[in-house]
Amino acid sequence: MCDPVIGLTIASGVASVGAGIEQSRAVNSSARQSYRSALESSASQNVGLDRRYIEEAESFNQQGYDLALQQAAASASARNSGAAGGVAGRTISALVAEQARVGARNASRIQSSRDNAKVALEADKRGVQVQTRDRIQNTPTASYGISDLLIQGLQTGAQVAGVRQGNTRHAERLELLARGEG
To answer: How many Cα atoms are found within 13 Å in the side-chain-facing hemisphere of 18?
Structure first.
């Protein structure tokens, strides 16, 4: 017949293992939810970053088109004004060349801004990746697997049963079995 104290101890150990398993499941379920949420947030942030970059790129493209139109109009206006005023040759060529230099400098600034926007986009995306990884890594998960909980319960039960019956050798044997060494 089993000693009532040992029976209660075993029942308590089983209940403890069951509670640990349920707690592990709850923690891991929360971790999975957090993982999905982090990935969804990351995807949403990346879509926003891509949209911002596309808008900036379209703006830079439009600035480039506007600049080309301004240059063409200024060149045509200079040639027409020079022809109407009887000025030709080097004076008109110098004026058109100066307008081309200014246009090239402005085009270079637009390209530089476009390049900077691309670098900023890449940096922002890396930041989103780091933020997502940190969020996932800092989400707590269960520290015990089911087998760990069962082994812990068996060890505790073996120790209590062995001490209660005065048979420490029996408790040691159960511990070895629980660890898979016996």
So the answer is: 6
C-alpha 3/C-alpha 11 separation (Å) is 12
Residue count of the chain, please give it.
Answer: 182
d(CA 117, CA 51): 12
Q: How confident is the prediction along the chain (182 residues), in pLDDT tens digits per residue?
A: 556 656 666 666 666 666 767 777 788 888 889 889 999 999 999 999 999 999 999 999 999 899 888 888 888 887 777 666 666 667 777 877 888 888 889 889 999 999 999 999 999 999 999 999 998 888 887 766 556 656 666 666 555 555 444 445 555 665 666 666 65
Q: The tokens 């949420």 sit on which residue? A: 37
Residues ≥6 apart with Cβ < 8 Å to 145: 24
